[in-house]
């Protein structure tokens, strides 16, 4: 029994590690269901305590491999000794692993442990989704690596406009249970799960909530590729701003020009002349430009990570509309812990440079903000990490939104799989909302994505690049854009209640 327990933990750990290959850039989506099926295998005929251990080791592998890119930023820019940075990563990964641990423990605690049946999966999926919701909410939330993202480039991506990324996570679990049942030669559960998936897939194939409009938007993406260590060096502010201006100058003849997060590294109040000239140039060329910029407001001593629009606000305008603190801006709401704000800062800031990075004292913007207006287009914005927060992005969606636009600076993560996962997450938001995606970053991955064709076009990574795209606009509203996860949560609640009732009436509750 002791040997079997260790074998099961090792199998769960390896299965968790392998899930990394189901995400970008590997995109082997089918690995995730097999990995979860392995978790089901090691959790059959075990106690709740053993199931929790297996869930924890699965989580260690899942997050340890999946967010290993975080260590790149800690090691290169955090100023910590290697042993300290590794311990910090272990702490983060262990915290994240606690969520699948609780899902496994609760399911085994509330159900019989001698068989993984239909009633078991009807309980496990709601509890796992509950833990995923809590992971994305508690302590500001970290919703990265949801299993739903593994299906972004799969045939099941057709479900995204209906059930969203969280619903796709439930689907991965259901597919995993069908695989496990098949291997165990338990045909009935496998057939039930397969039938549900097949009927749903046929249904969504026959209905498409969004379609193309007879209109496109001509967008220019400008990727500066500024080295991370130079981005906020004061002596490099004007060379950076001049570089973006020079890269843009030959490409004014477009509907919209976009620059990445904090492309203008100087605080907004100090670059009035620069922005006024940019505003005039954009309007003169009959276009608009959106850029990231930092804003330190002297009166309130608050600092915001902003997106602002300059040039034409409306299509019929003949002049630019920019002025300092004009309303056509977006203030980042979901701030990155340590990177943009430091909890317990009086305690942590003196410990190491990691807790005292440049620009780590931002002020949170409102969760609900208006779309940016640029040359007559309604642009739904998200800055960097925010794109991973489904409810935040959907909360700012309107029926008038033309584009999903997100900016980032992934130079923190080097040549790791982090930037690829970040773009994958952005593409999932486009699928959910039925909006074309425009994403521009400092050094990649920048590009555009069509959620109907599920095709994207991208700039080369780690290069200064300018690219012009004709992006087709869409019409219609997805089910998810209107109702979010409410229907899914209601369905899973009913599933959980029925499963509990069935087990209770059958005398299967453990004393």
TrEMBL record:
Asked if the keyword Protein biosynthesis belongs to this entry, the reply reads no
User: What are the subcellular locations of this protein?
Assistant: Cell membrane
**Cellular component terms, GO, for this chain's entry?**
plasma membrane
| UniProt membrane topology term | Multi-pass membrane protein
Q: Which SUPFAM superfamilies match?
A: Carbon-nitrogen hydrolase
One Pfam family of this chain: LNT_N
Gene Ontology BP, a term: lipoprotein biosynthetic process
Q: Where are the transmembrane segments?
A: 12-42, 54-74, 80-106, 118-139, 159-183, 190-207, 487-504
Q: Where is the CN hydrolase domain?
A: 222-473
Sorted alphabetically, which InterPro entries does this protein's record hold?
Answer: Apolipo_AcylTrfase (IPR004563), C-N_Hydrolase (IPR003010), C-N_Hydrolase_sf (IPR036526), LNT_N (IPR045378)
Q: In which pathway does it act?
A: Protein modification; lipoprotein biosynthesis (N-acyl transfer)
Give the Gene Ontology MF terms in alphabetical order: N-acyltransferase activity
UniProtKB keywords? Acyltransferase, Cell membrane, Membrane, Transferase, Transmembrane, Transmembrane helix
Q: What is its EC number?
A: 2.3.1.269
Give the NCBIfam families listed for this entry. lnt
Q: What does this protein do?
A: Catalyzes the phospholipid dependent N-acylation of the N-terminal cysteine of apolipoprotein, the last step in lipoprotein maturation.
Q: Which family does it belong to?
A: Belongs to the CN hydrolase family. Apolipoprotein N-acyltransferase subfamily.
Write down what this protein is called: Apolipoprotein N-acyltransferase
